[in-house]
Fold these 2 entries.
Entry 1:
Amino acid sequence: MADANEFPLLMRAIGHECPYCLDEMQKDGPKRPSRDHIRPKMLGADLNGGNRVIVCTKCNSDKNDKTLHQWLNELLRAGDSRAGVVADLICDLFLDHPSEHAHMLVGMPRVAKKGGKCKLPNCTCVGACEAGGG
């Protein structure tokens, strides 16, 4: 449950895209804005600015206490269309890959930034990547 200081932040998110599914967040129902811990609390993470994101309640509930990587694997196994969005977000947060590029995590070639260094083991990047392809 959000505290009183977060309520205005959550309300301002109404009408904006959920970063996990790209659906527009709404005032009520499963697309209502909620806060998520990018790194789950059960792994010792807190809700500091770098570990929090405002997402729709459905995505927050579905992700639950999983890391983004764990949830991505679950989405891929289920054939969930959110997998591509979450994979892009992971790239933005943890890799040197721009989100506008498709990538191998969802069955498409990934493109590393020029001179970028991929941190993903067994990477199959197209371009300047020390970990894989290129």
Entry 2:
Amino acid sequence: MTTGRKLILLAALGSAALLAGAHVFQALGYAPCKLCLWQRGPHWAAVAIGLLARAAAGPAQNLLAVSGHQDKAAMILFATLIINGGLGLTFIPRFGIQGAAMATSAAFAFEALATIVLTRRYFPAAPGRAASWSKP
């Protein structure tokens, strides 16, 4: 993964953490001011850009499935389902459709991170990385 892509993902994760913190405080009963609500827009944009950068990393889930690690790929998808359901039950009553979006985004972020970690573990020269023989 290139340094630029790492920085994009780091910015997306930072923005996701800030948004999660803001929504947790809102769930605890602290009403956000108008400016706080307005400032969430750029963070949602950063999260969207991060998801696009993750999508550009390639079909890591398929690589796991066709290489004999389909059981691990299935476990990641099952954990993603559980996370999405649990967060949905928590966020939807409080935030409505935005809660559903938050739950789904968090579950997709988990799926992406877990898939990339496992792919890097099983395939050191996975897509997005230069093979060791190609370095000068």
